Amino acid sequence: MIFILIFLNLSCELESQRSRPSYYSNGKFGEFEPYVRSFDSNYYRYTGKTLPLDNLEMEFADSASSGSDRAVGECNYRTRKIKVIRKYWQSASSNERTIIIYHELGHCYLRRGHKSDKSGSMPLSIMYPTIKTNNFFQDNKQDYLEELFTGNTSQFSSLVYHQQLALKEESDDKDEETFCRH
Ligand SMILES: [Zn+2]
Fold first, then answer.
1. How far is the CA of 72 from the centre of ligand 1 (A)?
2. How far is the CA of 148 from the centre of ligand 1 (A)?
3. From the CA of 180, how far away is ligand 1's center (Å)?
4. Environment class of residue 144 by beta-carbon count within 10 Å: exposed (0-12), middle (13-18) or buried (19+)?
């Protein structure tokens, strides 16, 4: 407990010593700013580094450049411009908005590609190619953040559950096989 308190204290000190990046001062991220700020501070929490967001541009669009009518956002690796589909954003919950912005920043700033790993029906990454992660995000937020910034998935308790289930099924199969041979 003492260790945890000291650690938290240290984290707070580090956070307060951090200088406020200038790109937030002109409101250039508009209503995306709270989500960008939260991504930025989580990035700092996991890596100890500040994101170079000076070149980031964000805007609403009525449709994706790809022409896909199922896309909710996109990030151009080269220009570092994020487009968010306005119609989807307007009806999205706060968690869905977080996932969209984190996912796109994950592409452009963490250089992450898509990750389709699942535990049962639960995606194990914000970088899952669809917004399905939203169904599980609220209950597993810290696990998803850790995965995004470190690539780890072993922290997901549901993964442990499904691994145990798979092992159990495997040993059940063996029993059955042995039984059949008798
Ligand atoms: Zn994507």
1. 9
2. 13
3. 48
4. buried
How much distance in Å is there from the Cα of 116 to the middle of ligand 1?
11
Each residue's pLDDT tens digit, 81-123: 999 999 999 999 999 999 999 999 999 999 999 999 999 999 9
Q: Is 11-153 CATH 3.30.2010.10?
A: yes
Q: Write down the pLDDT at residue 182.
A: 32
0.85 surpassed by pTM: no
Q: Which residues contact 80 (CB under 8 A, 6 or more apart)?
A: 55, 56, 57, 108, 109
Residue 7: per-residue pLDDT: 42
Give domain limits for the chain. 11-153
Distance 176 CA to ligand 1 centre (A): 43
Q: What is the mean pLDDT of residues 61-80?
A: 87
Q: Could you tell me which of 76, 138, 70 has the C-alpha nearest to residue 107?
A: 76
Rounded to the nearest whole angstrom, what is the distance from the C-alpha of residue 130 to the centroid of ligand 1? 8
